[in-house]
Amino acid sequence: MRPCKPRTVGFLPANLRFVPEIPGDGPAIHLGLDMLEAIRLADAEGLPQEEAAARMGISTATFCRLAGEARRRTALALSDGRAIVIDVEGGNAVFRPDGDAGEGACLGRCGFGAPGGRGRRGGPRCRGRN
Q1: Would the CA dihedral through 33, 38, 41, 42 be positive or negative?
Q2: Which strands sit side by side in the sheet containing 93-95, from one edge to the other?
Q3: Are 55 and 42 in contact (CB under 8 A)?
Q4: How far apart are CA 88 and CA 78, in angstroms?
Q5: 23 assigned to some structural domain
Q6: Cα distance between residue 52 and residue 37, in whole Å
Q7: CA torsion sign, 87 to 5 to 96 to 50?
Q8: In a domain, 118, yes or no
Q9: Distance between CA atoms of 112 and 121, rounded to whole angstroms?
Q10: pLDDT tens digit string along 14-68?
Q11: 39 in any annotated domain
């Protein structure tokens, strides 16, 4: 199995949880930081898929899968009245404030570069390996 390629994220959200005024039944819907970045670039910034994928440092096919899954989960949360939780830790995201793919702060399980992160890049819990 191929190792996951780090996904570049250009921002960290201020709010990590969105709860409906009248909560519905069911567990919260979780969105990875890379999923949020994909729909932010495609939908909020209106970038073409190829350009958005290049900014994240991933293939267009991977970008399309991420954006599609993020949209599906968001639609499910909105239609069922479920909370949305943004997962900052975990996954294979690398933070670069300029949004350009390349070296950055790993936001994988080690938490390096994350608000309150305790790990160190390249450490035993780091999945970013950059």
Answers
A1: negative
A2: 7-9, 93-95, 105-106
A3: no
A4: 21
A5: no
A6: 9
A7: negative
A8: yes
A9: 6
A10: 999 999 999 888 999 999 999 999 999 999 999 999 999 999 999 999 999 999 9
A11: yes
Count of residues in the chain: 130
Residue 21 lies in a domain: no
Cα–Cα nearest to 95, from 130, 125, 63: 130
- The range of the structural domain enclosing residue 78 comes to 1-10+28-130
Which residues lie across from 87 on neighbouring strands? 32
Pull the structure tokens for residue 125: 């819990």
Residue 105: strand pairing partners: 95
**pLDDT of amino acid 100:** 55
- 85's CB contacts (< 8 A; 6+ apart) are 16, 17, 28, 29, 30, 31
Q: Token pair 């994220």 is at which residue?
A: 9
Is residue 66 classed as helix, strand or coil in its secondary structure? helix
Tell me how many domains the chain contains. 1
pTM of the predicted protein model:
0.74
